[in-house]
Amino acid sequence: MGEFADKLAAKPLFYQRAYLGSLLPNYVKSGNLEKYYQKLTDFNFLIAKIQHSDFGVQALIDDFNLLDASEAVTQREYNPEKAKALDLIQSVLWMSADILDGDKTKLAEQLLGRLLYFEMPQIQAMLEVAKQWKAAPWLRPLTPCLTPPRRGLLRTLQGHSNSVNAVAVTSDGKRAISGSDDNTLKVWDLTTGKEEFTLKGHSNSVNAVAVTEDGKWAISGSTDKTIKVWDLTTRNEQFTLKGHSYPVYAVAVTSDGKRAISGSFDNTLKVWDLTTGNEQFTLEGHSYSVNVVAVTSDGKRAISGSDDTTIKIWDLTTGNEQFTLEGHSYLVYAVAVTSDGKRTISASRDTTIKIWDLTTGKEEFTLEGHSDSVNAVAVTSDSKRAISGSTDKTLKVWDLTTGKEEFTLEGHSDSVNAVAVTSDGKRAISGSTDKTLKVWDLTTGNEQFTLKGHSYLVNSVAVTSDGKRAISGSWDDTLKVWDLTTGKEQFTLEGYGYLVNSVAVTSDGKRAISGSTDKTLKVWDLTTGNEQFTLKGHSKSVYAVAVTSDGKRAISGSDDKTLKVWDLTTGKEQFTLKGHSNSVNAVAVTKNGKLAISGSDDKTLKVWDLTTGKEQFTLEGHSNSVNAVAVTEDGKLAISGSDDKTLKVWDLTTGKEQFTLEGHSYSVNTVAVTEDGKLAISGSDDNTVKVWDLSSGNNVIASFACKSSIACCAIAPDGLTIVAGEESGRVYFLRLEGMEALT
Fold first, then answer.
1. Is residue 1's pLDDT more than 50?
2. What tens digit of pLDDT does each residue of 565-589 get?
3. Shortest CA distance to 178 belongs to which of 156, 214, 209, 211?
4. Rounded CA gap, 538 and 565, in Å?
């Protein structure tokens, strides 16, 4: 666990509990704030408390609130600089709580990845200690690479097994209720971030959820055509409302909790009496599916949005349509209404949000900024801000006075489908296709940091043989050269007008070879940063490239199903390797330059003799596309990664599979192997980089959680420094630490 934790663990259990549980409250009570600040910036204390079975992440988070709850603290004793440091550390704990709950060894990587941005002495001193943590293997960020605090994200709520479609929050801001494609609703404690319980009863996706003002009932709508009313005190279903003939996509409840309004794919809305469970009347007028409904705070009007591109305003007293709002050019997916009932905000698949005056029925203005469908919108209780969620994976916070975007909240790895806001306007809760909910701090978001990387997907990376530089290729049409010692960008290689899919570097570190969607490869001089020449011959995109150790030949793989062997002295094609029945995604070459190994969408790998240009044999075993391949220094083993979520280790002498590595939950996109052949590094659509012990057969010894899908990785000759590129454009520089713990 670490020297401090080991010493503490040697003490009796009652001593451990007393020390970790009472130390900080005693410091605050006695006014010894210097000791209080010191302990909460002491990495050894933090990890000891997190790892102790009686405490954990939430108990530590609560320690940071002791000052706020203490009457012993005066303004004179309060130290703003140190308090800011504590605030940053607590924010990291909030943001990382879901990760730390699952793996308490990840505290050091989370602190470093999120706090290296800050030059504050207390923060930097703590991080220096964190760097030395050796209790288990872990991947240490060498540069600031994770989302820092002060940019909105508080924590992630995990538990649903499918897309989260709906979310509501109780008026006291203590609970959130979510609905999912996994047919369930979950009730979450927003103080601890824990799931309280699950509500089961629907037989199909839960598309909508609302909660009564008193927080006692939740109302859900489902693809099973029903609305269910749940008692959140007893955790039981009260009754089911039946009447719609198609899936229910929307539900709202009046502030007095007496009526619910539902919207359906059957083009209608229904108004229900929640006391009796009876339908009061049906609202007809939309010509296509009703996707969303909101109700004014006085309970007199409902606002609905539809696939017919319109918003309709309904009188809930008479059941009549008052008027229709027209202006969106595509499906309306979300509506919200201000607390005074004077304005409604609508969101559409046309990527815009519109603000409407409910008195006149006129559009006031349009909010533009999302790059894809806007699926959700909520408005703060003071009617000053709107929060929108989009298929572009972001949320945006808008000033409804000026019509301007305030800031963007990034963190989801897939479409944002739902958003709710607490009554104090300080927090938003979003639900996503990535199966998570995220809690956001709306009081922050203005402090910006520069993150290392490209402006688009980083699809390839290579490291020079001296371990001093890395070269990355991106779908932003550029390559970048990085100093591996500092993590700083040295220069950018420009010349493509198309996506860069692959890159390799010669063993002398003087040249890089890249492949592109423009069907060509380019050879670059890494001393001058200039293009030397272009290799033409493929008829489709070039997805893979490798270079022989003598730097004389390059081997490329393409969507045209072939590999080509190139003479890097003359720039001429030597010969073409044919045999795959689908796109060639990956290629590696043995150190002696005699064999090439390719991976393809045809689910196979092929081993090629580069002397004769003949196929030696085919490696079969993956059940889906092969995306990546690496070969050990001695040329005896190949390691492949596939869309089937696995890696496979192959014996290149016999052509047989040795074993399969399982642990990723989505496609494996990239793989690298250390020079000694003992470790493999993989990256996946599950947003992780994993390190595998090849001697054990199937042992993940370290894992790092990134922001989005990992598309490429490479490892330096030291066998410890890892470079990885991801879908967001970010480049990660990591170092494997704590290997001593394995021995």
1. no
2. 999 999 999 999 999 999 999 999 9
3. 209
4. 11
What residue type is 530 in one-letter code? N
> Using an 8 Å Cβ cutoff, are 412 and 438 in contact?
yes
Distance CA 414, CA 437 (A): 11
Cα–Cα distance measured from residue 633 to residue 409, given in angstroms and rounded to the nearest whole number: 44
The tens digit of pLDDT for each residue in 583-623 reads 999 999 999 999 999 999 999 999 999 999 999 999 999 99
d(CA 98, CA 438): 10
| pTM of the complete model | 0.81
- How distant, in Å, are the alpha carbons of 150, 350, 631, 743 from that of 118? 11, 39, 40, 35
At CA 114, angle to CA 28 and CA 39, rounded to 5? 20
Q: 699: helix, coil or strand?
A: strand
- Those residues with Cβ within 8 angstroms of residue 196's Cβ, 6 or more apart along the chain or in another chain: 175, 187, 188, 189
Question: In this structure, what DSSP letter does residue 301 have?
Answer: E
Six token digits for residue 566: 């190139």
Q: Angle, to 10 degrees, between the axis of helix 43-51 and the axis of helix 121-131? A: 60
Q: Which residues contact 375 (CB under 8 A, 6 or more apart)?
A: 333, 334, 347, 389, 390, 391, 415, 416, 417, 418
DSSP 208-269: EEEE-TTSSEEEEEETTSEEEEEETTTTEEEEEEE--SS-EEEEEE-TTSSEEEEEETTSEE
The residue assigned the tokens 């539809």 is: 306
**Pair of tokens at residue 10:** 């040697």
Separation of alpha carbons 313 and 704, rounded Å: 49
R_g (Cα) of the chain, nearest Å: 29
| Contact partners, residue 652, CB within 8 Å, separation at least 6 | 590, 595, 597, 607, 631, 635, 636, 637, 638
Query: How many angstroms separate the CA atoms of 64 and 120, rounded?
Result: 18
Which pLDDT belongs to residue 216?
96
The whole-angstrom distance between residue 513's C-alpha and the CA centroid of its chain comes to 31
For tokens 């975007």, what's the residue?
Answer: 405
Strands 374-379 and 362-368: unpaired
Work out the burial of residue 106: count CB atoms within 10 Å of its CB; fewer than 13 is exposed, 13-18 middle, 19 or more buried.
buried
- What separation in angstroms does the CA of 317 have from each of 271, 285, 302, 313? 10, 17, 10, 12
Give the angle 506-507-508 at the CA atoms, nearest 5°: 90
How crowded is residue 636: how many other Cβ atoms within 10 Å of its Cβ?
Answer: 13
Contact status, residue 561 vs residue 539, Cβ threshold 8 Å: no
Q: Is 88's pLDDT higher than 70?
A: yes
pLDDT exceeds cutoff 90 at 179: yes
* Residue 144 CB-half CA count within 13 A: 15
The residues facing 355 across adjacent strands are 345, 365
Binning the chain into helix, strand and coil, the percentages to the nearest 5 are 15, 45, 40
* Amino acid at residue number 452: K
Average pLDDT over residues 633-655: 96
- The answer to whether 164 and 435 are in contact (CB under 8 A) is yes
Print burial letters for 45-56: b (CB count within 10 Å at least 16), e (below 16): bbbbbbbbeebb
Phi, psi (degrees; rounded to nearest 5) at 292:
-160, 150
Predicted pLDDT of residue 483:
93
Structural element, H or E, at residue 711: strand 710-715
CA–CA distance, 521 with 545 (Å, rounded to integer): 9
Strand intervals (E) in 455-510: 458-463, 469-474, 479-483, 488-493, 500-505
Structure tokens at 230: 């749940």
Token pair of 169, please?
Answer: 């929050």
The residues, any chain, with a CB within 8 Å of residue 173's CB and separated by 6 or more, are 190, 422, 423, 424, 427
